[in-house]
Structures are given as structure tokens and as C-alpha cells.
Amino acid sequence: MNPSSQNYPSVATSHANGTIRRTQILLLGTRRSGKTSLLQVLFNDLPLKQAFFLEPTMRVSKHLVDTAIPLEIWDCPGNITVDTLGAPLSDFATIVFVIDIRDVYQQPVSKLVEFIVAACQVNPDINFEVFVHKAERLQEDDKLENFRQIHERVMDRLLDESPEFEQFPLNFHLTSIYDHSLREAFSRVLHKLIDSLPYLEDLLNVFCSNTASPKAFLFDTSSKIHVATDTSPVDQATHNLCCDYLSMLNSFGPLYRSNAINDPRMSRFSPTPTPPPTATASSPAASTPAGTPPSIASSSASSSKPLFFPSAATSLSPSHPGTTLTYHLVTPHLALLALLPTTVYELRRGLVEYNVVWFREGVREIWQVERERSEGEVI
Question: Are 170 and 130 in contact (CB under 8 A)?
Fold first, then answer.
């Protein structure tokens, strides 16, 4: 079988020649389990009303996605087997298996166990994730009961294969394309594949500490998957709010452009950052003009055109002191979304912007290293 190749809009055209190293994800499931619609909604902004009319997958399709790391996702037809896949399972870092929550469980469970047993023989460290999909179809009690039954049946079948699978790290997620559970589940899948995740989390922790932010996320702007977050627990309502805000910005952002791109005054700003001040310390940075646009040293040296990073903010509560949700673009694919006390954002906005520049510098350095490594320039 010759896999077809499909590029989503987020894929850089300069990498379409196949020279870039991509982390491979295998997407499996039975027919009509929702594999293709899942990918299209996540990475191609497929309208939800059109998901029902997608044609069944008839052959393996490769989907190339650029986010914090370059990904290659293989969307497989429902009748695929280990022998007909056309590639060794050792090539894949993660296998995602999709099960329709209302399906007859025997066939998908048997297929899942078959791939688990085969994969563990060639790569015991492979990540397995199970998406119990189309959860919107059931009431809450029925949803949880079906989820529990699927989990028990899979683990029982694995124990029947071998007692060694008793502690097998198999992760189950309830997902649906009609809410943000799918993005939350895929975020968890992505986190296991990013080697630089601890460094991104450290940068977010420093940003939260310096700006008194209770929560901050690093989001992929197109798919609305959060690449990293600080160490505080993820509140589902906060995550959903950030996803909705990012969707709104994606919808209306193309209607606007900034005159600052052609402003000659931008050349006067120094590209070299100094360590960021904290929200509790008195610092001259607190008086920095709020509209100071950031500049990146490594890029400004190679290009005469100054870089422009859009930002936005919205108040979540009319009461005082209240909370403000902020957005700052970090790389072409990643954005920082953070909750800030409104008093900090309004009275110390220069401090916030200063820490954003510092955070952006760190993320862009990590992003550049990941990019060079994937292109084979770093071993």
C-alpha cells in the first residue's frame, strides 16, 4: 500500500520535500469510529456540521503538522492490520486507537490488543492512547458506564494474552469533536513527545511567578492544543475559556493588520533583553511603555524587516479587581495565553510586556533547537 500524503495549512511549505525529521503517530480504529473527522476538526478547522459527511478512509494517509515539534500522523482505514500497514511499528512514537463509545466492543478491543502485543515486541517504550470517542451521544451516567466497560474489557483481554500486561501503561480519554475534550486529550498525547517540555514548563512557571499569573498556557494557534502549561493544576473551565478565546481571535484576526510593521520608530528598540523583573519588586521596567513591540535579536540581524507579534486582552469580570485573559504570539505557531489580575495588567502592563519578551526569547530558542534537530543539523 502506498500511503498518500496530505499537508494541513500549518505545515511549512519549505519542509514539504520530506527532508525534515518528523515524530510519527499512528491513528487506528474501526470503520466509522471518527478517526478522520477527529483529525480534520483538530488541524483543518472542519465545520462540525460537515464531519458527518466525510468519506470513510480507504487507504493510509499521512498528515503533516508543524507545532512545537513536527508531526506526521498516519490515518489508517478500519481494515488495516499489522501485516498490511506497510511500515514497522517501531517507527512510531505513539499509537492512538479510537473507539466509538456506542460501538460493539468486541472487534475494536480485539484489534487494539493485536496492535499492543505486536508493538511491544518491537518497541516496549511506545506510547498507547485510547480515545473513547463520540462521547456526546450519551447521557453522563451512560457515558461513564460505557467508558468503564471498555477500559475493563481491554485490560482483561491484555491479561489473557500475558500476565506481563497487568501494569501496562494504557491511557484512556473520553473525547468528542463537539467540545474541548478532544483538544485536551491530544494535548496529553503531545506532551509525551516533546523532549523540551520541562524547559517550556519552567519558562511558564517563571512567567507566572513574575507577573502574579494564576495560570498560563502555551497554545498551538491553529489546532488550539496546549503544548505546555505551568505546574499548577489545569482547571477545565479555564482551559475551555482559553480555547474559545483563541478561536475568536483566529476568526477575527485576519481582518486586521498593524501599522507598526512599517513604523520606522521600531528600529530604536533594543533587541537584547535583561532578566525580567517580578510583580512584587520595584523596578524601572514597570514604567516601560505598554505598547513597546518586542524584537528578536537572532532574527533582526538576518532581516531588515522588524518582527511584529500580535497581542490581545479581555476582561473576564466587570468587578474589581477582576481577572484579565491575555494573548501574545510567541512563534509563528505558538501563543502565550495567561490569566492575570486586572490590577497587575492595568497598573504594571510594562512589567507584563517585559516578561512576555523574556518568555518569547526562551521559547524561540527552544523552538529553533527543535527545528534544527528535526532538520538534521543537531544530533
Answer: yes
